[in-house]
Amino acid sequence: KWGMSELDLTANPAASVIPPRRPASLNDRPAVNRPWEPDEIKVFFDTLENKAMTYGHPVTMYNVLKGVAIAYYTLMREADIVKLRWSDRKDGIIQWHRSKDEAPHDLWEHEELTRILELGPKLGLTIITRRDGQPLTAEGLSSNFDRHKERLLEKGLIQPGLTMHGLRHTAATFLATLGYEEENVAAVTGHATMEMARHYTRQHRRRERAKALLDLHKIMSDEENQS
User: Fold this and answer.
1) What is the predicted pLDDT for the residue at 125?
2) Interatomic CA distance for residues 60 and 66, integer angstroms
């Protein structure tokens, strides 16, 4: 389509290409950005706020704590988290523009997020900063997050596969579990299309069907034991 509009092609030579099937060997690979379990969320917040397993400068720990809190309570991506300024918070509302498409967003600030953001020093215009008060990059935040995650993994306090982006999947999956429609899920996560929202609802329905089958087997087993 780009070639037809930009290079004056008269036809799309790839229109009839059949996409290859997904290799079966990939089906057993762990899910990317998997949802966090409730106990994993708790241990992340507890160890960071209580300064357990700390490393480096205290600002580093506060950066990870605040970054995870922003991701969890607002569903922002890392690129937006590091750009968030103190001045974007007004009267309990966070006003920001998504980096992906510059779309405006207004979110109520959760009281627990407010409490966490008030911890530690305010060094610059942005909430997440380097030690000198300059904005931290998304890569820097991700690196600090990974270092703490590895320490929790070594202690067996979390399972492999956690990412900050996975917190978006956590909230979306939870909304689907509560029965919210795809449009509501997409509105919260900021997805422009319904496809990702459908993915979360389909994932929830598969789990519900699997649980129903397990319950059925338990009932059948109980009846057999009684007979």
Assistant:
1) 95
2) 10
